[in-house]
């Protein structure tokens, strides 16, 4: 059973915690699931420019208002709110997955300008689950989905504090196409919440030099990858204990080395 772990507080006083979730078993497109059928990219990703992709219905105009937006993969909702200004209704889902080297990594997917939000912070979602509907930020834009994939888990809604390049962001389509099917197991991992500042506020130790994601997660030996969900190992508990201590102290810059 997924549960919310003990609440903590990071450097800016924003509530933080952990929710246990299984690894993602693959990534699909957030519209026209699973392969974006009926939609097209009206604007693509490029570093130091547009940091995500804009997706529109092929019928054009605002014909796609209210169309379903789906979670790109299994994960935990870490932001779900109306940010206002140029963002409108936004959702960020955090995903843990096993990368090409067999190590566990995390990535954030962002869904912006939504007409409606269907999920809450701390909620676990499955790949292809409805999380919201397509909008245009209350008429500010033609209706579309702005979609991002972030390497750096601390960005949240404060993009100006971080390098606008491939050190912090993925090309969403490239990332999805490279991770369509992934190995998973019944084991659940603690997914951190609240490790970024609220919109418009600074994060005291935020790196803008393109450094690696602050949160590192332990890699399981290959012999443990298909074990039933019996909870974290002693090494895992030690790792997350150290991470919780650093969160309390506001020391997110260097992260915590995973157990060997």
Automatic annotation (TrEMBL):
InterPro entries per the UniProt record, alphabetical: Cell_wall_metabolism_enzyme (IPR050570), Dup_hybrid_motif (IPR011055), M23ase_b-sheet_dom (IPR016047)
A Pfam family recorded for this sequence: Peptidase_M23
UniProt feature coiled coil, ranges: none
Signal peptide as annotated in the record: 1-15
Keywords: Signal
Positions of the UniProt region annotated as Disordered: 210-239
Transmembrane helix listed as a keyword: no
Ranges for domain M23ase beta-sheet core: 65-152
GO terms for MF: metalloendopeptidase activity
Protein name (Swiss-Prot/TrEMBL): Peptidase M23-like protein
């Amino acid at each position: 059973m997924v549960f919310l772990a003990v609440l903590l507080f990071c450097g800016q006083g924003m509530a933080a915690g952990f929710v246990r979730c299984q690894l993602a078993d693959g990534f699909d497109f957030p519209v026209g699931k699973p392969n974006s059928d009926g939609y097209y990219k009206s604007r693509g990703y490029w570093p130091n420019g547009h940091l995500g992709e804009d997706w529109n219905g092929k019928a054009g105009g605002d014909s796609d208002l209210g169309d379903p937006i789906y979670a790109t993969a299994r994960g935990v909702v870490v932001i779900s709110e109306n940010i206002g200004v140029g963002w409108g209704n936004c959702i960020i889902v955090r995903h843990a997955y096993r990368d090409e080297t067999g190590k566990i990594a995390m990535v954030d997917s962002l869904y912006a300008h939504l007409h409606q939000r269907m999920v809450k912070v701390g909620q676990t979602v499955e790949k292809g689950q409805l999380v919201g509907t397509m909008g245009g930020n209350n008429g500010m834009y033609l209706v579309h989905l702005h979609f991002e994939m972030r390497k750096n888990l601390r960005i949240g809604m404060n993009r100006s504090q971080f390098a606008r390049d491939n050190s912090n962001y993925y090309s969403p389509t490239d990332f999805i196409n490279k991770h369509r099917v992934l190995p998973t197991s019944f084991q659940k991992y603690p997914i951190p919440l609240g490790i970024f500042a609220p919109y418009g506020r600074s994060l005291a130790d935020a790196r803008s030099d393109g450094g690696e994601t602050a949160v590192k997660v332990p890699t399981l030996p290959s012999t443990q990858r298909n074990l039933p969900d019996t909870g974290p190992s002693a090494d895992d508990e030690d790792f997350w204990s150290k991470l919780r201590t650093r969160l309390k102290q506001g020391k997110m810059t260097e992260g915590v080395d995973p157990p060997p």
